[in-house]
């Protein structure tokens, strides 16, 4: 999903333990990235992983239900994508 400039927000995290910031800053430096760039990628990957895990659960549940039915369920991928994109 492509994001436009209007789709971005700024986040400020308060009361983060020093060692957490220090650890992430070190990992960012080791990758040759700024802390901001590193955390942006980390948060994006975490969000995508969550979405993928949810999609896998839905797929497994769909297969489980379909195995109990006499006829296969229709493919709802397009409808689910539309619903997700409009959320």
Label this structure with key terms.
87 residues, mainly alpha, single chain
Summarize the structure.
The protein is mainly α. The chain has helices spanning 18-30, 35-68, 77-85.
Task: Please provide a written account of the structure.
The model has no long low-confidence stretch (mean pLDDT 87). This protein has 87 residues and is mainly alpha-helical. The protein has one domain. 0% of the residues are buried. The chain is 64% helix and 0% strand.
| Overall pLDDT confidence | 87
Percent strand equals under 5%
The strand count comes to 0
Gross morphology is: elongated
Count of helix runs: 3
Kindly provide the radius of gyration, computed on alpha-carbon positions and rounded to a whole number of angstroms: 19 Å
As for the number of domains, it is: 1
> Terminal Cα separation, in Å?
13 Å
SS-derived structural category: mainly alpha
Main beta sheet strand tally, sense and closure: none
Helix content: 55-70%
Poorly predicted residue ranges: none
Note the run of SSEs as H and E: HHH
């Amino acid at each position: 999903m492509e994001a436009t400039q209007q789709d971005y927000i700024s986040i400020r995290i308060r009361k983060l333990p020093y060692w957490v910031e220090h650890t992430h800053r070190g990992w960012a430096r080791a990758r040759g990235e700024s802390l901001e760039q590193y955390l942006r990628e980390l948060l994006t990957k975490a969000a995508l992983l969550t979405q993928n895990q949810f999609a896998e659960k839905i797929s497994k549940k769909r297969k489980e239900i379909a195995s109990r039915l006499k006829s296969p369920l229709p493919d709802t991928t397009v409808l689910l994508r539309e619903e997700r994109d409009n959320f």
